[in-house]
Structure formats: C-alpha cells, structure tokens
Specification:
- The complex is a heterodimer.
- Chain A is an all-alpha fold.
- Chain A is built from seven helices and no strands.
- Chain B is an all-alpha fold.
- Classes of the chains: A mainly alpha, B mainly alpha.
Chain lengths: 170, 117
C-alpha cells in the first residue's frame, strides 16, 4: 500500500468522508445534510475500493447511497408540516464529549498496536463471497432474507391507512 | 525521526483505516444523540454502521500472516449482513417516523414526550 495513487486516494477519500460527515452535523437544512450524507456514503465506497472490496463498494453505492437515502428523502417529503431545520438537542454536549473519548480511544489503540503483515490484494471477491453465503453461512443468509421480508411487510402495515382509521379522525 | 513520521504518514496500513473508522463512528454517535429531528438521528445511526463496516473491511484486507483468502473474506460476508439489517432498520424507522407525524404533526424528538413524567 505504498503506491502514490493509493496514498493520495486514501487521504482524499478519508478527508471527503469525514468532511461531509461533519457537514451533516453542521448543515442548517435537513435536506442539505441528507445530500452531504450521500457524498459521505459515496466516498466511503471509494475507501472500500482502495481496500480491494469491489462487491461491498458496489453494494454500498446501491444500498446506502441509492435506496436508504431515497427512503430518507421520502420520510422528509411525507412529513410536510414538520420542521425542516437540523437543530441540536441539549444532549449534544455530552454526546460530543463521549464521541471525543471514543475517537481518541480507538485512535490510540490503532496507533499503539503492532499490526504486522502487509495485507493481501484480492483479485475478485464476488465468487468467494457467493460461495461463503450459500455454503457456510446459508442459515444466516436465509434468516437475513426473512428479516428483510418481515421488515418490508411491517413497514407497509405500519403506514397503511385503513378505512376505520380515517372515519374516526376525519 | 523525520523518516519515521514520513513513513507513518505515507505507508497506508490498518492503523489509518481504523482511525478513519473510529472517527466516522464517533461523528455518527454525535449526530444520533444530538439531533432533534428523527430523520437526523437515523442519519447518525447509518454513519455509525458505516464506520463499523469500514473496520470490518480493513481487518479483512490486512489479515494475520498465513490466513487463507476464504477465511479473510468472511469479513465481507459479515458486511453483507450488516447492510441487510441496516436496510431493514431504515425502512422500519422511517415508517415509525411517518406514523408519529400522522398522530402529532411533528417528528421533533423533544416534543414526542407523552411517556415522560
């Protein structure tokens, strides 16, 4: 991991991830912070590519930058009378203190430990991931698909407006 | 001394990725705990999950010496499950936000306080 392209790419993408993540916190408008969140997700996918995780990078772009951000836009658009500002609650100061503790603790552990080993570049990860998912982890894979199905059915049932509801309120 | 510092900066290793991962996690925890809007809190949770994913991928890229490729790629399989759970969680949480908005006409978490005494 010493070629200049990788080094430059790492620092650019890490700066973009952390910078747009900070702007998610600082932006005044909720939709602006949502846009910065998408930039943060995309540069995180670039970081995955520098770690030669091609499948996960594409899944990150599709799932996080694609569907989850669109879901959040839907949630903002479906609540038109709610406040659009991105203000902080009183818990932000203890949260800042604890987050500083977490970040400095992780950074100290990462700096202090001897992570020996140069690391390996994978040619293509997709075949091996598929074999692991449908071989060793097939039970967890099926449970995850059932979880996803239940979550989608549950979400539809939660927001579905039944006839008896609207009769009582309107 | 200067060569050591330059080497630390210019040789990207597991340490650098773990520092980025911890910083993204900490940033996400600030957003998740400190925002008043429910959608903002959800953004913070997604950032925290992203930081954890980066740590998993980095450990999978820098395994201990003598690890087989199949064993190293189990980290990627874990990431696939984290992505699945994150998608399910986002769908449910946003449905709950829309439901709360229908009853109270707000998604401000400071004003959803019926159970508070």
């Amino acid at each position: 991991m010493e070629s200049p392209g990788i080094v430059l790419g790492f620092y650019l993408l890490a700066g973009l991830t952390l910078g747009s993540g900070g702007l998610v916190f600082l932006a005044r408008n909720l939709l602006h912070s949502l846009a910065f969140l998408v930039i943060s997700f995309l540069s995180m996918a670039g970081l995955f590519l520098t770690l030669s995780a091609d499948f996960i990078a594409m899944a990150q772009i599709l799932i996080y930058a694609g569907s989850i951000s669109v879901l959040m836009v839907f949630a903002v658009m479906l609540t038109p009378l709610a406040s659009r500002d991105n203000s902080n609650s009183i818990y932000v100061f203890p949260a800042l203190i604890s987050a500083g503790g977490i970040a400095s603790f992780v950074a100290f552990i990462a700096w202090d430990t001897d992570w020996s080993g140069p690391g390996t570049d994978f040619d293509s990860t997709i075949g091996t991931i598929g074999q692991l998912l449908l071989g060793k982890y097939v039970l967890a894979f099926e449970i995850a698909s059932v979880l996803l199905l239940f979550a989608l059915v549950g979400a539809i049932m939660l927001v579905h407006q039944r006839d008896e509801d609207s009769e009582g309120t309107s | 001394m200067i060569e050591d510092v330059l080497d630390l900066i210019l040789t990207i290793g597991l340490m650098h990725y773990l520092i980025v991962s911890g910083s993204v996690f900490a940033l996400g925890s600030v957003i998740a705990l400190g925002k008043r809007n429910a959608v903002g809190v959800l953004m913070g949770v997604e950032l925290m999950l992203n930081g954890a994913i980066l740590a998993l991928i980095a450990f999978s890229r820098f395994p201990p010496a003598g690890t087989a490729t199949t064993a190293a790629l189990e980290g990627h399989v874990f990431v696939v499950f984290v992505l699945t759970v994150a998608a399910a969680e986002a769908a449910i949480a946003l449905a709950l936000a829309v439901l709360v908005y229908r009853k109270r006409e707000t998604v401000d978490l400071d004003r959803i306080n019926l159970l508070k005494w």
